């Protein structure tokens, strides 16, 4: 029995790997072969195909929906976000350690954005800061403008891996602030710090952008620590 299970697992891994290679050549929303077609193609049972499908869904590469079957999923970092949440809930990491990750990523990300940003990206950063200034600091719009600002800096860095990391970080932060004790923004400081980051990026000054981003994130980490102790 045990040997049979191992064989089945190897077959499903082989099928999943072959389909993964197919997916790399497709685009989001493209349909993948039906269960019957996969059974015929690989010469395996429906059980093996279903296990392979489960693996692809688990990896965030495919979506299974009624009427459409299996299609190529958008790689949006949602699987990574889920892992962040599980890690924190299971005590494998703390909010402070997540802030350490943000410091490592976002400080250099801001410096790269200062060197690489386009006029359209700069205009978007300024638009988000205007939205931030106009929003109620206790409302959802303020939080959305805040987190989106950091995501747009990731885009402006010109490095797609930064964006892939920032989206799940922002998803987790939004969930944490929405369901936890609230958003400890210190709104006045957040607005001014965002303005300084944007000015540094607009000036094309990586050193200044790096300093402004680090100052902003370290202040948030300090305030979060004080906020959670109250």
Automatic annotation (TrEMBL):
<keyword id="KW-0804">Transcription</keyword>
<keyword id="KW-0238">DNA-binding</keyword>
<dbReference type="InterPro" id="IPR008920">
    <property type="entry name" value="TF_FadR/GntR_C"/>
</dbReference>
<feature type="domain" description="HTH gntR-type">
    <location>
        <begin position="5"/>
        <end position="75"/>
    </location>
</feature>
<keyword id="KW-0805">Transcription regulation</keyword>
<dbReference type="Pfam" id="PF07729">
    <property type="entry name" value="FCD"/>
</dbReference>
<dbReference type="InterPro" id="IPR000524">
    <property type="entry name" value="Tscrpt_reg_HTH_GntR"/>
</dbReference>
<dbReference type="InterPro" id="IPR011711">
    <property type="entry name" value="GntR_C"/>
</dbReference>
<dbReference type="InterPro" id="IPR036388">
    <property type="entry name" value="WH-like_DNA-bd_sf"/>
</dbReference>
<dbReference type="InterPro" id="IPR036390">
    <property type="entry name" value="WH_DNA-bd_sf"/>
</dbReference>
<dbReference type="Pfam" id="PF00392">
    <property type="entry name" value="GntR"/>
</dbReference>
<protein>
    <submittedName>
        <fullName>FadR/GntR family transcriptional regulator</fullName>
    </submittedName>
</protein>
């Amino acid at each position: 029995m045990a040997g049979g299970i191992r064989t089945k697992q190897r077959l499903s891994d082989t099928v999943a790997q072959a389909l993964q290679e197919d997916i790399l050549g497709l685009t989001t929303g493209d349909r993948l072969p039906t269960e019957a077609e996969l059974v015929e193609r690989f010469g395996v049972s429906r059980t093996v195909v279903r296990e392979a499908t489960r693996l692809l869904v688990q990896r965030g590469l495919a979506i299974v929906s009624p009427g459409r079957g299996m299609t190529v999923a958008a790689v949006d970092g949602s699987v990574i976000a889920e892992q962040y949440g599980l890690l924190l809930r299971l005590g494998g990491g703390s909010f402070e350690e997540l802030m350490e990750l943000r410091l490592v990523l976002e400080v250099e990300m801001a410096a790269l954005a200062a060197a690489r940003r386009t006029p359209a990206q700069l205009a978007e950063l300024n638009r988000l800061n205007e939205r931030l200034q106009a929003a109620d600091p206790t409302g959802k719009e303020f939080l959305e403008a805040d987190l989106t600002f950091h995501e747009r800096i990731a885009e402006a860095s010109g490095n797609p891996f930064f964006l892939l990391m920032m989206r799940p970080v922002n998803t987790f932060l939004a969930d944490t602030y929405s369901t936890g004790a609230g958003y400890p923004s210190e709104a006045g400081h957040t607005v001014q710090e965002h303005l300084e980051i944007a000015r540094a990026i607009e000036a094309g000054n990586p050193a200044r952008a790096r300093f402004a981003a680090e100052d902003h994130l370290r202040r948030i980490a300090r305030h979060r620590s004080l906020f959670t102790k109250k």
